[in-house]
Amino acid sequence: MKADTGDPQSETLPADRLPVRTGKAVGYQLCGRGQVRCGFGAGEKGRFSGGTVRFMSVLHSACFQNRHLQPATEPAMRSEALFRDQPYLKSTEAVVTGINERGGIILDRTVFYATSGGQPGDTGHLLRADGSRIRVATTVTGLTKDDIIHVPAEGEALPELGETVTAEIDWDRRYRLMRMHTACHLLSAICPFPVTGAAVDETDSRLDFDLPEAGWTKEAVTERLMELVEADHPVYTRWITEEELEANPSLVKSKNVRPPAGSGRIRLVCIGEDALVDSQPCGGTHVARTGEVGEVHIGKIEKKGRENRRFRIRFGPLPAY
């Protein structure tokens, strides 16, 4: 085996020592006859399972340790998404199971929510055993919602495959997003019209409704929002089958987007005892009670087309003009 000098180098590995395969290729080339070629130098291009990849030197130290490798024919690795059932969990110990060709980091389990459904992905850091931190600029999904990719900030070092890290989110930011996302659910309960668009942000979120009438005011909607917030209703999740969703199509608020199918079950976010206030499919993170949302108001109602109205939700009291 050649020494790793930083120049593009390679080594042929037998079939029983094939590399980890993640949702995206990790920097190896199939050479035929049950062998693979491992690129050591950063920047070398190659082919892997039919896709162009860029080899990364970070894979060097782990690629020869059999306990970290799986046959390339295995399905894409998935992360245990702890945030689905434990949205208040701020950190967890995890193992690095993959690094894709763009430097995205895959863990065996994570507290990081990945961008989806209008809610932005979490930021934070991965704490290494030596005390150094890898800043995570955002989190996205891969081929499926279970392929969660932690995107390091520009210039950050990459971990080794098989390395144990502590994944910790920026909790203050996440909590603001949880409060705001819950407020968006309350707004959709107040305005029972098809949702044509949504975006959750830390300070200013929006919901677009298929609503031709212009009889809604900021003041009236804000008042109803705060009634639901101050009632301190419970917020919780439950699962139903895809067949149950088909039998109850009104649960889906979105006009054009359906929940992902194929898993056999659908996650519902419910508000109020027996879901009296609201119930709809959602994979995001929310607070446990509506009282945690705090004071919010409708900052603006905009006309976006002949039959579209955009409601903007903001934290704080309704300004007096």
User: How would you describe the shape?
Assistant: globular
Counting DSSP H or I runs of 4 or more residues, the number of helices is 3
Major sheet strand order: 8-7-13-10-11-12
The count of DSSP E runs of length 2 or more, i.e. the number of strands, is 20
Elements, N to C (H/E)? EEEEEEEEEEEEEHEEHEHEEEE
The largest sheet is: 6 strands, antiparallel
Poorly predicted sequence stretches spanning 5 or more consecutive residues: 1-75
Q: Could you walk me through the main structural features you see in this protein, from its secondary elements to its overall organization?
A:
- There is one protein chain.
- By secondary structure, this protein is mainly beta.
- It folds into 3 domains: 10-57, no CATH class; 80-170, Beta Barrel (Elongation Factor Tu (Ef-tu), domain 3); 174-315, Threonyl-trna Synthetase, Chain A, domain 2 (Threonyl-tRNA Synthetase, Chain A, domain 2).
- The chain contains 3 helices and 20 strands.
- Strands 8-7-13-10-11-12 form a 6-stranded antiparallel sheet, with no helix packed on it. The protein has a 4-stranded antiparallel sheet with strand order 14-15-20-19, with helices on one face.
- Helix 1 (171-190) packs across helix 2.
- The longest helix is centred in the middle third of the chain and has 20 residues, at 171-190.
- It is globular, with a radius of gyration of 23 Å.
- The N and C termini lie far apart (74 Å).
- Residues 1-75 have low confidence and may be disordered.
Topology:
Blueprint: E1 10-13, E2 28-32, E3 35-39, E4 45-48, E5 51-54, E6 80-81, E7 91-99, E8 105-107, E9 109-110, E10 124-127, E11 133-141, E12 148-152, E13 164-169, H1 171-190, E14 195-199, E15 204-209, H2 218-230, E16 235-241, H3 242-247, E17 265-271, E18 278-281, E19 296-303, E20 309-315
